[in-house]
Design brief:
The protein has twelve helices and five strands. The chain has about 290 residues and is α/β, with parallel strands linked by helices.
């Protein structure tokens, strides 16, 4: 889509910005009950010297975004380090942590040198009463020996300062792939659930209003929002994607406000082989033949 086409769509709806970013910013997603509970548990862990948490949620439920939001929220009281674990081993983990905690003077990856650098910077933070918080995203995609680096971090001590709080994210089906030592480190499991229908409606309303249209129902019929909630299963990524495509399709078809039927049409175009939640089940061919 060209910039002129994108601006034409915004102009059609009376919006100043795109309300449903493909990669949402920290301010672009509302705090749902699940997200707020997750943040509250993470804050409890950090402020009470607990070891960490395993954040579990299906694909698209906002695990990475949660880490991003939390790293900003906790930054005034702690030093937070957000690291993608995909393909990472223990040395790479220590290198990234040393890099983020103060910058490297040279690209040295000697485990001994890295541990010395980390211990020095950890002690400096502890002296200022700032706890380290390591946010490791997609830990199941890391190499098995990342457990060595995480175990090392869990044993860091300086005076009465607790070791770094370790937060790991994974999908439920990935947990069996995570090395057992990694699973033994966090002392709390934090579940991220899909949004409830009312949370989807609150999200759509807020995003449209923030984009310049106070009367959000002139853009989305409430029935259309309920349909988005049904078809997306409440998965935040799918909610954003479906809502965004509905804006484009409805503008092209000159349909205002977006109707449940428009949502169905967009969903069928996006997922031609996926059956809608309330679609009637087709009978097998053998049954059809017998009926005839």
């Amino acid at each position: 889509m060209s910039r002129s086409e994108a601006f034409a769509i915004l102009d059609y709806w009376g919006l100043t910005t795109s309300p449903f970013s493909v990669r949402p910013t920290r301010g672009g997603v509302i705090s749902t009950a699940s997200q707020e509970e997750a943040v509250a548990r993470m804050e409890f862990i950090v402020h009470n010297g607990r070891s960490g948490g395993l954040i579990v949620g299906a694909e698209g439920t906002g695990k990475t975004l949660l880490l991003d939001i939390f790293s900003e929220r906790i930054r005034s009281a702690a030093d937070a380090f957000l690291i993608s674990a995909a393909g990472m081993d223990d040395v790479e983990l220590l290198f990234r942590l040393a890099e983020q905690s103060g910058g490297l003077l040279a690209p040295r990856r000697s485990p001994v040198w890295l541990r010395q650098a980390i211990e020095s910077r950890f002690a400096a933070a502890a002296y200022q009463h700032r706890r380290w918080v390591v946010l490791l995203d997609d830990v199941a995609a890391a190499r098995p020996d990342i457990a060595v680096g995480l175990t090392y971090l869990s044993r860091l001590r300086w005076d009465d300062c607790p070791p770094p709080a370790l937060f790991l994210t994974a999908r439920p089906d990935e947990i069996r792939r995570i090395p057992r030592p990694c699973l033994n480190l966090p002392d709390l499991r934090i579940e991220l659930e899909p949004w409830e229908p009312e949370e989807v409606e609150a999200y759509v309303a807020r995003q449209v209003q923030a984009a310049g249209r106070e009367d959000w129902q002139s853009v989305f019929d409430p029935g259309a929002v309920r349909r988005i909630a049904e078809l997306s299963g409440g998965v935040p990524r799918e909610v954003r994607r479906l809502a965004d495509l509905c804006l484009t399709a409805a503008a092209g078809a000159d349909v205002r406000p977006i109707s449940p039927e428009m949502v169905d049409a967009v969903h069928d175009e996006l997922y031609p082989h996926r059956e809608s939640p309330d679609a009637p089940r087709r009978r097998p061919r053998e049954q059809e033949a017998r009926v005839q």
